[in-house]
Amino acid sequence: MRARLLVFPIKGRNWCFMRSVDRSNAQSQSSQSPTTFKQLWEKVSSSSHKSTAANLEICIDFAANKMNKAWAGLEKAPQGSFKNKIHSLGLKLLSRVKPSEIFLKSIPKQLNGVEVVFPSSLNPRLVRRRLRHIALKGTIVHKNYFYGSVTLLPVTSAFAVLPLPNVPFFWILFRTYSHWRALKGSEKLLELVSDSSKNQNSHEKDHVNEAAENDSKKETHPPLVMQASEELERLIGDGNDVSKCTLKEISKVFDLNTTDVLKYHQQQN
User: Fold this and answer.
1) Which of 28, 74, 133, 256 is disulfide-compatible with 251, CB 3.0–4.6 A?
2) Residue 269 above 70 pLDDT?
3) What number of other Cβ atoms are within 10 A of residue 229's Cβ?
4) CA distance 161 to 170
5) Angle, nearest 10°, between helix axes 244-253 and 258-267?
6) Is residue 211 within 8 Å of 228, Cβ to Cβ?
7) What stretches of 95-226 show up as alpha helix (H) in DSSP?
8) pTM
9) String of b and e for 138-155 (b: at least 16 CB within 10 Å)?
10) Beta carbons of 128 and 115 less than 8 angstroms apart
């Protein structure tokens, strides 16, 4: 499983890191995930050859799917209803999630390689260093936040005695899951970037045509392929101050989530 990552400067030291949307893979993963407790039990009990960590991951994915369905139900609630107000509150809270966390969460453990697309004017080594920096920082930051969120779960669960939805508990539960996913994504990205350092010079020589050459030769893909893009260079210009309109156009051309990309622009203000 491989992914395409886009890396480009927005303003000064503020860079955008995003993964292109992989709709086919998302659909296949959702079809394989258990949807009921019975299916979850059958999948966990029949996978005796799997480790405890693998079974835990299945349970976490199951809980995440349940949360996503509950969130979709709130989104469809009538305007002005109590559920609609909870959904509006959730949107305000989600808007505070940093775009770097969203990026790291998009890196799954099944990934065995990435193609990094960047403006042709940038040095590939600089782009790789920035990727390694965000991955290394993510392993530290999200590990600390993960343990912090876990310690708050028992505290927020006490609000269950109130005759209202326990919003604090479910928010902390979501943040715990989110930081755990970002931590795992950081570790996987750091692994892929570090593994490629030995053969980096050979990868950077023909980074423009390397993917096509590997396909024609039927060789094993390297874990990291650097792909300079003239089109991305044209869109961002000098990269000193990329506008929202430009970010929307980049999202459309390279199949990115526009909302997540625009968060990088909001972050610099």
Assistant:
1) 256
2) no
3) 19
4) 14
5) 150
6) no
7) 99-105, 124-157, 167-195, 200-205, 210-217
8) 0.77
9) bbebbbebbeebeebeee
10) no
